[in-house]
């Protein structure tokens, strides 16, 4: 079957009117679809209000015990259940899940090397059978950034990595497209100029733009995840503005398409 994995970032979730507009588009999105969400901005804000200061390294959150409790409440509770309720109101039969539900995503606590990320999970296994069953039953999974180690420990996992892993696991048996929706029009040459979209990025262009620091911070893990997905059989990866999601689905020019192949110069 054809499956679309759609990831929505914290910058959109944080603005109720932007989230509502996005969910209305998601409801109209054709075919089988899975929504993956983060919510890092809200988690940071909640943490700060409780005296737990956010600490990020390379776009990943250092997650101590208090932070794990906060992200579990925010991602698996507040954000996930609100999105499910809003989608149900839009007549989408959404079902909200963490990686622990139905053993959907098993991860392991990231080994301590130069940095101790704490309770951060690296994905090991995705229960694609469960996703197949849910999709075949007409349900639309809404999956958040909390995973588990199957030994009783919840872990915090970057939502871009979750989207990419779900896409690559499902791509073994299905035609899978991956859409990263965020608050900018795409990958930009000049971050402050929304019309400076780079329509197509391959690995050569990526390496060059990274070297020149045109691409930095949160965009690096997003693009690493995008290339990893293409390498493992995902058909199409798109990065762009949440409001252009339906244009992207129709193949209309909007945002950035990620292309795997390097161009042969000779
Ligand atoms: N060349 C670029 N074009 C667009 N955004 C960029 C670029 N380089 C870095 N970024 C940054 O990456 C961010 C998106 O990554 P992230 O915050 O992880 O997204 P999300 O909203 O999905 O969580 C943008 O908000 C922007 O600040
Ligand atoms: C380990 C790790 O970094 N987890 C992320 C999960 C949420 C996320 O990815 O949210 P966005 O998509 O809104 O950035 C975090 O806690 O920020």
UniProtKB/TrEMBL annotation:
Signal peptide: none annotated. GO terms for molecular function: acetylglutamate kinase activity; ATP binding. Pathway: Amino-acid biosynthesis; L-arginine biosynthesis; N(2)-acetyl-L-ornithine from L-glutamate: step 2/4. The keyword Hydrolase does not apply. One of its GO terms (biological process) is L-arginine biosynthetic process via ornithine. GO terms for cellular component: cytoplasm. It holds the Pfam family AA_kinase. Substrate binds at residues 39-40, 61, 156. It is found in: Cytoplasm. Keywords: Amino-acid biosynthesis, Arginine biosynthesis, ATP-binding, Cytoplasm, Kinase, Nucleotide-binding, Transferase. InterPro entries: AceGlu_kinase-like_sf, AcgluKinase_fam, ArgB, Asp/Glu/Uridylate_kinase. Residues 3-240 form the Aspartate/glutamate/uridylate kinase domain. The keyword Hydrolase does not apply. The record marks 7, 222 as: Transition state stabilizer. SUPFAM superfamilies: Carbamate kinase-like (SSF53633). It catalyses: N-acetyl-L-glutamate + ATP = N-acetyl-L-glutamyl 5-phosphate + ADP. Its EC number is 2.7.2.8. It is an enzyme of class 2 (transferase). Belongs to the acetylglutamate kinase family. ArgB subfamily. Catalyzes the ATP-dependent phosphorylation of N-acetyl-L-glutamate. This is Acetylglutamate kinase. The gene is argB.
């Amino acid at each position: 079957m054809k499956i679309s994995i759609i990831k929505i970032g914290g910058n959109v979730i944080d603005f109720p009117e932007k989230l509502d507009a996005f969910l209305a588009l998601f409801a109209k999105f054709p075919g089988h679809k899975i929504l993956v969400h983060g919510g890092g901005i809200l988690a940071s804000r909640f943490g700060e209000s409780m005296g737990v200061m956010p600490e990020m390294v390379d776009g990943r959150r250092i997650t101590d015990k208090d932070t794990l409790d906060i992200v579990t409440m925010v991602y698996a509770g507040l954000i996930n259940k609100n999105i499910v309720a809003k989608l149900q109101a839009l007549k989408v039969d959404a079902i909200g899940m963490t990686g622990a539900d139905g053993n959907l995503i098993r991860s392991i606590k990231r080994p301590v090397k130069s940095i101790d990320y704490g309770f951060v999970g690296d994905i090991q296994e995705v229960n694609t059978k469960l996703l197949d069953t849910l999709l075949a039953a007409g349900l639309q999974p809404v999956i958040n950034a909390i995973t588990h180690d199957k030994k009783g420990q919840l872990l915090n996992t970057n939502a871009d990595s979750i989207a990419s892993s779900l896409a690559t696991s499902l791509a073994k048996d299905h035609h899978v497209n991956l859409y990263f929706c965020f608050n900018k029009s795409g990958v930009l040459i000049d971050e402050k100029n929304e019309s400076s979209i780079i329509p197509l990025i391959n690995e050569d262009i990526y390496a060059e733009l990274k070297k020149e620091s045109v691409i930095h911070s949160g965009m690096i893990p997003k693009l690493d995840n995008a290339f990893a997905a293409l390498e493992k059989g995902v058909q199409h990866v798109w990065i762009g503005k949440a409001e252009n999601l339906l244009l992207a689905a129709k193949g209309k020019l909007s945002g950035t398409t990620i292309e795997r192949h390097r161009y042969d110069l000779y």
